[in-house]
Amino acid sequence: MTAISLRLPDSLHKLARELAEQEGISMNQLITLALAEKLSALRTESYLEARAARGDRAKFEAALAKVADVETPDERDRL
Q1: Residue 52, pLDDT score
Q2: Is 40 within the bounds of a domain?
Q3: Using one digit for the tens of pLDDT, what is the confidence trace for 46-76?
Q4: Could you tell me the residue range of the domain that residue 63 belongs to?
Q5: Integer Cα distance of 29 and 17 in angstroms
Q6: Is residue 39 part of a domain?
Q7: What is the DSSP code string of the chain?
């Protein structure tokens, strides 16, 4: 594990401390979870951007054209 020194504005520190108390967790755990969530969101965004860049509209439309055009779904497909 690595320890870091972090400077926070007093208002942010107060809100984080209050939330940690409400959740029954330590400040360290709250900050670790918040950082993990943010990193996950950013990595997901990058992944989706890369996937979208590889997309091909013509291939998508060709695949969509293979789908049967039906008015009502099969009984097994109904909710």
Answers
A1: 93
A2: yes
A3: 999 999 999 999 999 999 999 988 888 888 8
A4: 10-68
A5: 11
A6: yes
A7: ---------HHHHHHHHHHHHHHT--HHHHHHHHHHHHHHHHHHHHHHHHHHHH--HHHHHHHHHTS---SS--GGG--
